[in-house]
Amino acid sequence: MADALTFELDPAVGRERGDGVLNLWADVSNADGAVGFVPPVTPEDIRPEWVKHLVAMAEGRTRLLVGYDAEGEVAATAFFSYNTHRLMRHWVWLYTVMVHPRHHGKGYGRDLMRAVENAARGFDGIDAIRLTCRGGTGVDRFYASCGYKEVGRVPGMIRVAPGDDRDDITMLLTLS
């Protein structure tokens, strides 16, 4: 059995941890992971998006959950974003959910989703987690197996490449 990941919410993000997240994001993207990019990409291609996440974290709008493998390397991430609309502050968005491809098949994805749920249960006033995922990848079935329910689907709203449009699927996990 594989060693379990160790999770940390709101870690200090210095250069080493930042590079770990960037490398993870690039490796997941290049393995056809649906995390906002299509291959081929480099960490430098992703850096502008990472900087946006860092700004949102510094402003308190976004929180980072990191999973570390037995060697202490960044092996998984998920980003929580708070809603600013006064009528929607009772739920959070979940973005950029990633497990490094070298760790696939070890149950780390399920571990990450449990850690996500546990973290969100500790956020004041949060009753639910909402995420979107790209159709055609099977990840919606994974999220469903973790307790998320499909609550919306917009056909063809994600254009991966010319002629390759995917559904944008919205899923929800109620925490109550």
Strand content: 25-35%
Radius of gyration, CA atoms, in whole angstroms: 16 Å
Biggest sheet strand line-up:
1-2-3-4-5-7-6
In terms of structural class, how would the helical and strand content be classed?
A: alpha+beta
Helix count equals 4
Share of helical residues:
25-40%
Quick structural gist:
With 176 residues, this protein is an alpha+beta fold.
Question: What does this protein look like?
Answer:
- This protein is an alpha+beta fold.
- It contains four helices and seven strands; from the N terminus they run E-H-H-E-E-E-H-E-H-E-E.
- The chain has helices spanning 15-30, 43-58, 108-121, 139-145; strands at 6-9, 62-68, 74-82, 91-99, 128-134, 149-161, 164-174.
- The chain has a seven-stranded mixed sheet, sandwiched between helices.
- Helix 1 (15-30) packs across helix 2 (43-58).
- The longest helix is centred in the N-terminal third of the chain and has 16 residues, at 15-30.
- It is globular and about 40 Å long.
Characteristics:
176 residues; 30% helix; 7 strands
SSE blueprint and pairings:
Layout: E1 6-9, H1 15-30, H2 43-58, E2 62-68, E3 74-82, E4 91-99, H3 108-121, E5 128-134, H4 139-145, E6 149-161, E7 164-174
Parallel strand pairs: 4-5
Antiparallel strand pairs: 1-2, 2-3, 3-4, 5-7, 6-7
Helix pairs in contact: 1-2
